[in-house]
Amino acid sequence: MLSGSASTGPTEDDWAAAVAAVRRLPADARVLLICHVNPDGDALGSMLGFGLGLRRSGVRRLQATFPGPPEVPEPFRWLPGLDLLVPAVEAYPDPDLVVCFDAASESRLGELVDRLDTAGEALVLDHHASNTGFGRIHLVDPRAAATSVVAEELLARLDVPLDADTATCLYVALTTDTGSFRFEATTPAVHQLAARLLATGIRPGDISRRVFDTRPFGAVRLFGEVLGRARLDRAAAAGRGLVWTYATLDDLARHEQQPYVLESLIDSVRCTAEADVACVLKQVGVDEWAVSMRSKGAVDVSRVAIALGGGGHRFAAGFTGRGGAQEVLGRIRAELDGALTGS
Ligand code: AMP
Ligand code: MN
Ligand code: MN
Question: Which of 274, 268, 213, 217 lies closest to 245 in space, CA to CA?
Fold first, then answer.
């Protein structure tokens, strides 16, 4: 058996297969690291942190990439290991090993999905319960707070010690996906990992300020406008409540802002006490929206997202919605009642 069940995480056989896949690489092997489209802190942090560890362990021909435009979101443009990145068009067409980070399904790999077939071996590191089981060797642990938890364990099993650069990347990934240790997935193991990372001497205050607390003034004004149009729908989700807003490409243009500034918008909306579910629609094209959803627990938003073609976790999920904003919202509302957890 090469694959552990999605609910229990990797088996010892899975770990052994992953370790062997790296250890048996010849000295001139080409290794390609891929993370999901629109990379977030966990996607980039786990990929670059693992990449830096691999490089220290002697892998010389190493690339990291992600699908879509090759722009790293501003909050991550200082990460160690950015020199590993190449645009997707320049990625090895047939690497000896491909390693995927934080992607629940092949669709999240965009134009890079063919590497799963062209690569000599395909290793998948992830923590989505909805992971579809693509690739050949699966290190998928839905109990893990971030993909970086899995990446750090694999580095440890490869006897690659942490250094400050690797730790910085993994710390960014861990704090991003745990909401700076606020979310349910923040287990004792998460804090133990954080302690190992901090012990390398990294500075959590500097890291958090750069990732979470630095935005242009225009973004502050943009948030004012977009939060001002938020709506509370108390009857939605069988009375548990839905709060939502939207931001258009025109909003971004008027405030001269890049799309990344909207990533944290959901955090300003989801604090609404009167709603279990929060939702932000971010326009990405004509009649196309990147939808972010969060739940306080009564609704499993991953069910809504999966029903509408996306994915995610129980408390945080998303999908790409097509049509007008009201139309997309209507579809979300229709799915909410069926996604009550009963808790
Ligand atoms: P976000 O709201 O963009 O922070 O995304 C929250 C979670 O939802 C992510 O961790 C992903 O697991 C998932 N997600 C977001 N957008 C998509 C999508 N288009 N397809 C599949 N999963 C998604
Ligand atoms: Mn992610
Ligand atoms: Mn993640």
Answer: 268
Running along the chain, 343 residues long, what does each successive block of 10 average in pLDDT?
62 98 97 98 99 98 98 97 98 98 97 98 96 97 97 98 99 97 95 98 98 97 98 97 98 97 96 98 98 97 96 95 98 95 74
Q: Is any ligand 1 atom within 6 A of the Cβ of residue 128?
A: yes
Tell me how many degrees the CA angle 119-35-208 measures, rounded to the nearest 5: 150
Determine the atom of ligand 1 nearest the C-alpha atom of 317.
8
Q: State the pTM of this model.
A: 0.94
Closest ligand 1 atom, CA of 293?
2
Cβ(158)–Cβ(22) below 8 Å: yes
| Neighbouring C-beta atoms of residue 244, cutoff 10 Å | 25
Identify which of 270, 84, 237, 227 has the alpha carbon closest to the alpha carbon of residue 169.
Answer: 84
Q: Is 132 in the pocket of ligand 1 (CB under 6 A)?
A: no
- Name the residue of 46, 100, 295, 319 to mutate for ligand 1: max ligand atoms within 8 A of Cβ: 319
What are residue 321's DSSP bridge partners? 289
CA angle 195, 198, 199 (to 5 degrees): 85
Question: Side by side, which strands form the sheet with 30-35?
Answer: 61-65, 30-35, 97-101, 121-126, 137-140
The pair of three-digit structure tokens given for residue 85, joined into one six-digit string: 């990145």
Q: Is 308 near ligand 1, meaning CB less than 6 Å away?
A: no
- CA nearest to 184, candidates 316, 304, 273: 316
Query: Which sign does the torsion angle of CA 8, 307, 309, 281 carry?
Result: negative
Helix count and strand count (H, E) for the chain: 13, 11
For 290, residues 6+ apart whose C-beta sits below 8 A from its C-beta are 38, 281, 282, 284, 318, 320
| Cα distance between residue 185 and residue 115, in whole Å | 31
- Residue identifier of the C-alpha nearest atom 6 of ligand 1: 317
For tokens 């938003």, name the residue: 301
Residue nearest atom 14 of ligand 1, based on CA coordinates: 318
d(CA 193, CA 156): 12
